[in-house]
Amino acid sequence: MTSRNMKSGLKTSKVGAWLSGKGPQADIVISSRIRLARNVAGVSFLPKASPQEQKELVSSINRTLTETLISNGRGVIHVEDLPLLEAQFLLERHLVSADFLKGKGPRGFFATQDETFSLMINEEDHLRLQVFASGLSLKEAFERTSEIEERLNSALPFAYSERYGFLTACPTNVGTGMRASILIHLPGVILTREIDRVLRGVLQLGLSVRGTYGEGTETKGHLFQISNQRTLGQSEEEIVETLTGMAEQLIRYERDARSYLMANMAPYIQDKTFRSLGILKYARALTSEETLNLLSALRLGLPMPGLDVATLNKLMILSRPANLQLYFGEELSPEQRDSKRAELVRETLKDVEA
Amino acid sequence: MTSRNMKSGLKTSKVGAWLSGKGPQADIVISSRIRLARNVAGVSFLPKASPQEQKELVSSINRTLTETLISNGRGVIHVEDLPLLEAQFLLERHLVSADFLKGKGPRGFFATQDETFSLMINEEDHLRLQVFASGLSLKEAFERTSEIEERLNSALPFAYSERYGFLTACPTNVGTGMRASILIHLPGVILTREIDRVLRGVLQLGLSVRGTYGEGTETKGHLFQISNQRTLGQSEEEIVETLTGMAEQLIRYERDARSYLMANMAPYIQDKTFRSLGILKYARALTSEETLNLLSALRLGLPMPGLDVATLNKLMILSRPANLQLYFGEELSPEQRDSKRAELVRETLKDVEA
Question: Chain B closest CA to A268's CA: distance in Å?
């Protein structure tokens, strides 16, 4: 399946620009994300909005995106028409939520070609805006989100209360309606067995810790998603500041842990890195989870000749089941996927040498 | 340490010619071995022989080896003078027994440069002769052993009873005093879970099954040592015939198992082979046991471009702890050994490609 067949118009062989590895501290913080929950004033909130209202919402937001020049010629796609594989593809790329895909009724999705901005219509709220940036760039991501939000708000005013702030379908989002998060790689902290202590500190700050794919998902590949819990009684700037501060602290812990490991267990770390490379370069079958763990070991082993963060980030996404199938343009059984995944990995890492 | 420093005169970077992989069916049967227990007539048997008698025995056998042209200029070495590392080196090369090294008093050792013939003086018996051959070559090994035995016997008659045959220190060896064995690689039979049934058949024939390093050692790397138990009431030819027949049957089982695996689990086997290659080519630390298991997977994956049985056999021996240290010419801690082992393996397999 070529990208021409993709309803979303997204490229199956490229990943989002926010995975470029070019942002600040991008060797440890994969990405920063700002998500806003917004509802259009005067339209019934979900789930009370009728299918007709939902449908009109998709249309009006689509128009607004064009008028505000946000969509740049691309239109909103109708999620209910999406082939299952493409829906899963968007989920794996962190562009939609699982709840959004499970939903019923008219729902719309939009993403810029570089996948740094995306939007869900009729998820839990009328609108969920999302901006991704490479590395630890919460402030930049927030500024961009605000800029987009303002353009939308001027055309399609959002439900807002002077007392509570932005109104949302679920009270946990009322206020800023904002969730800020980072995806961070902490293998050093795990290997030095400091992780529990470190994560306790994160929770004490009122932040939450999850696996790569959101609530209730396991942490795999030593990756953690850390986000704010509170949306009320704290300004957007404070949320960004708190999370950025915590991220900086985590980066310090991680760098300290790595220094400790290199000073005390260098042969072990080196062996682990190179073994992982050997398996990735030679295996004929790789599960999704094993791939993630092996890529994590390589990431810890950076810098390595011929290998950069962008390549690891790309493999992390393209090796996911739906991405893999769309990359190869065919539906694959689990066994075929493991084989094709190994092929993709092998081909991508062929010039990386020990 | 160069080979010049080796008391045994053996090369630390070469292994015995019986590991050449050139014998019949040498992809499955690593080697064939014939061992004879003999005692010199008129000299007290061990352990009754006095230290003086033992010493004289070492000298007289040394002389006999020269006179019979078996030793070809090389002399018997005194085991009690051997550095521990070199003693272990001989054990790992299957040239001496653990009991021989643990023994006390004057003991002699001799091996031809190619390590296909070796001899222990004052192990359990005055003499233990041993001939190794590549592949399934028990008959050839037996003929060579007999030829050497006759030359020795004509110069130094062996204790023999018309009724019982050759007399030995332990009654379990009386009669032929012969132990014939093969070292066989059975990964297919193990993977298809036929191994228990197959080994029961071996035991029912009165043969015994052991690990690579003799009695009481674990089977590692899917390698089994199969030998005759009986030395009485069966001629040498019958022993050779029985064991050869069993070996042929085991080879058939193994080839059938491999055909089954390739027909039904080819991707799994291929993946296992290539992963093993990847780890061997990239790891920075390898334990002796892991190396053996990874080499076993490669052996199952043969033929493979740039790789032959001889290389695998060589690594199997050189990667053992004492061989490794003498190969690199220095005493090494266990951690250093794992690192140097990985270096040796990496270097040896550098041109093997997937």
Answer: 8
